[in-house]
Amino acid sequence: xxxxxxxxxxxxxxxxxxxxxxxxxxxxxxxxxxxxxxxxxxxxxxxxxxxxxxxxxxxxxxxxxxxxxxxxxxxxxxxxxxxxxxxxxxxxxxxxxxxxxxxxxxxxxxxxxxxxxxxxxxxxxxxxxxxxxxxxxxxxxxxxxxxxxxxxxxxxxxxxxxxxxxxxxxxxxxxxxxxxxxxxxxxxxxxxxxxxxxxxxxxxxxxxxxxxxxxxxxxxxxxxxxxxxxxxxxxxxxxxxxxxxxxxxxxxxxxxxxxxx
Length: 261
Prior knowledge:
Helix content: 40-55%
Number of strands: 8
CATH superfamily: Glycoside hydrolase/deacetylase
């Protein structure tokens, strides 16, 4: 069985001063180490740091190591029991997709669901849990989304791909999502952050599971031990040693054998 290591950055910080130099370092490190990654960008960050995002988009255009996708405009919650009305969600995502297309030069085809820290109630077990959840899926698919977290009842989002064919969308992929650095790096809830993630990689390898890893631009840049992205290099190196295939989300989408029914 193929095992995928899916590295992503939720790229959401709007503060120019705080994030100065991040994109340049990311490009240098990921190219030097040949580490593919997906960047799920918020529209607000794109608007507030337009010059940086525009330069980043131009620099990585056509480079298969860099997959630029979307993370809503305002970090709004999708798939929550008490979430915003569908028309409010649509306005937010539409605004974000438009900013993405205007600045980065391409309309996104993937979104990662934003965490709202309980503000919108518990997360639904899947888009198929409620009529509103189903309507939310219909809305983002209509906007052009073809890749979304594996937010489907009966699917373990932390390690499984899925198809949304059962909800009428056989061309929409669900991707694994787990292990946020806000927990293991920013709050250091599991002891030494790097050793913890290395143990996760080893465990997934031993079990024959996919290994998703969720980074955030502001954590990787402002709360890691250094600004050389040394921890990212270590994770990629261990993943390769343990037999994982490193890939972006769009590469997984293009390889339909991972998820199509």
